[in-house]
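# step 3/5: fold
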Amino acid sequence: MALLNFRRKAAPAGADFDSFLQGYSIEVMPRTAAKVEDFRAILPQGTRVYIAHIEGTPIEEMVETAKRISGEGFDVMPHFPARIIKDRTMLADWIDRYQGEAGIDQALLLAGGVKDPHGDYHSSMQLLETGLFDDRGFKRLHVAGHPEGNKDIDPDGSTAQVDEAIRWKQDFSQRTDAEMALVTQFAFDAKPIIKWVDSLKAAGVTLPVHIGIAGPAKLQTLIKFAVACGVGPSMKVLQKRAMDVTKLMLPYEPTDVVRELAAHKAANPDFGIEQVHIFPLGGIKTAAEWVRDNTQEAGRPAAASA
């Protein structure tokens, strides 16, 4: 008789872990969102869902996805990648579509993963400087953070340009009434994350950090995304795992890095991480299931809370 391969549910990881994941956010693309019949069946009520705008995705698909997910009761935050926005007219059109058709008033502004700008903009700072988001009543504006630097921005391996950008964003937040936060690239080691967050505080940066965490996925998938996204020294965590034949075929789960960050936050309540942002590289359902399996409250889907 064939053996059935049931996935064993993990025991909850503890109160600190649960508290740390409370209010987590997650992101989807229109094509992956289309595969989810009802987000209320997998995500907690009120979860912020970012909609990633990949080059070539029509704005109509982005807005329709935003409208659908918002209609199911979730906060929706679409990406505005500066380098694929041609000019002020296009930017205004996108903002008006999201606001008028889907009732959106929040956005993640970032440079985008395109090497050569398609038009007038190459950074999120330029998008902020247009004043269009403020003019049209956008209340929350998130921007990117890079705990391990970014070689696209600092080719010499330093953090000079990314540090200057964060200081600019901090200054912008202080002279406007926009609610802002730094949403970071994912990393696999808690130590450089803790060091980076502490360095922000030392530099007088008070923007809350929404720390990027890679959701459960096959090791090969994670390595591919990590290379493409320019993940820094914490890549060694994956490389070490790849050399262990006992772990090579097992899916990666971010339990260890989240547990270490949660313990640090519990011991240091003023630590700058405000929320966790999950990149569901192995699928949104898989990521949501991992949260549910490891927490009592943070992962309770909206359908179960109704």
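# step 4/5: annotate
Strands lie at 25-28, 48-51, 75-81, 106-110, 140-145, 179-186, 209-214, 273-279.
# step 5/5: archive (pending)
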